[in-house]
Amino acid sequence: MPRFVLTSLTLAAIGLGGCASPPAQGSPDLTRLSASEAVEAVCSSRVSSERLTRAYLERAQARAHLNAFVTLDADGAIAAARRADQRLAAGQPCLPLQGVPYVVKDNIEVAGLPTTAGTAALSGFVPKVDAPVVKKMRDAGAILLGKTQLHELAFGISGFNANFNTGPEPGVRNAYDATKMAGGSSAGSAVAVGARMAPMGLGTDTGGSMRIPCSLNGCAALRPTMGRYAQTGIVPISHTRDTAGPMGVSVADVALLDGVIAGGEPVRAADLKGVRLGLAASFQANLDADTRAAFDTALDRLRTAGVTVVPVDATRLVELNAAVGFPVALYEAYDDMVKYLHERGTGVSVAQLVAGISSPDVKGTYDALVVPRKLPAPTPGKLVDAEPIYRAAIDVHRPAMQRWYTDTFVQLRLDALVFPTVPQVAPSAGPQSSALEVFGLFIQNTDPGSNAGLPGLQLPMGMGASSGLPVGLEMDGLPGSDKRLLSLGMAVELVLGRIPAAP
């Protein structure tokens, strides 16, 4: 598994250099460590897992107004941290994530904790076994802090969910400004990492659900190649498009988690000299001033580091994406949910689930489209049967998208496509953030790669000059290029630098 060295300079900067005893009151904040740095600190016995876990729990409890958690399992986390410390004290080998806390989106099953998917009907569903991705984390020594909030049933990109709130204002709130949208659907995991309530986490992504909130909250995330991670034990939308994925403070953290879950050789930063990144004009539409300025600056720095930016005509890709995205997700959502509810022993029918949906945007989508198997017709206000459109999407348009990516990468000799993850910084939080036009805007760039099953890596590229909010950069690669994408991301992160942590 990947291992990353925490230098003596870094240790000294956080008050850990050469001393394993607890720091004096007022010592620097352990929660400023990245996950890979925290692993090294625990494995070198410079900090105990219990001390690290308590620091994150305190920060999470102090930021309850952000509504990041559905379940914060403080007692379970402390008990697990003590076991991790006892294991290390007994001389057992250090595990890849030894004693380091993390969070899990609440549509991913964890044994003994509710898996609500952010909706009332599943509030009593407590799985008996971990989802495979969670088991990988547990076996690697990670300490679960709790389950994080999400857009209800993962069916949106705002994170505005009135269920299970812990603060006075509803909906998950942005780590950098609680008046702003957190993004979604993996809102709670992104906010927990961005606000340093945890150094790493798991989310899920159907059309941008990890990359969008990480862009808005200053964290890194990998949407892996479809099929790279097991999808068992995860509340579904679409078996064609859904995948779990890692989220972290840095790209190195994301690479560390990917190595734990998917295996393979450790990742090292690439040499950017000679790297070719494709850039399409359609992925630069609708940018606000902060995003445009941050992206232009990032491209300038990458060119200086030796990257060649190659123009790409994505007109055909945009057309194909429109024929795939909604038809696949909305058609598969019904059958996939029925199957999940039955096979996982939830005791809940799809009718009960839909009856309990409280978010107007999600309720309207299920009632009008998902349950009756309909899609909007070209004529406004009309609906048509979804099945023939879905079949064309799966049999014709999606394969054509995949060919477009392969042909474009080969012909232009690309290492990846590069673009702003989302076109604008976080707007104001509230019910209006779940409007269809906001949804369409914020999935503009993340949706195509999702529909083609590509890996996509989000990393922070700066802070908005006027807004003071994080701005994200994404790179998409061909299927199976996850390790190469992470290697490129680590190099890009070195060039662009890490953004300041949320207050």
What would the keywords be for this entry?
disordered N terminus, two-stranded antiparallel sheet, eleven-stranded mixed beta sheet, alpha/beta, 503 residues, 17 helices, single chain, 13 strands, 13% strand
Query: What is the tally of beta strands?
Result: 13
The stretches of 5 or more residues where confidence is low (pLDDT under 50) are: 1-26
The termini sit apart by 32 Å
The share of residues in helices is: 25-40%
Mean pLDDT: 94
Largest sheet: 11 strands, mixed
Structural class: alpha/beta
Give the percentage of residues in beta strands: 5-15%
The number of helical elements comes to 17
Radius of gyration: 21 Å
User: H/E order of the elements?
Assistant: HHHEHEHEHEHEEHEHEHHHHEEHEHHEEH
Strand order of the largest sheet: 1-3-2-4-6-5-12-13-11-7-8
Shape: globular
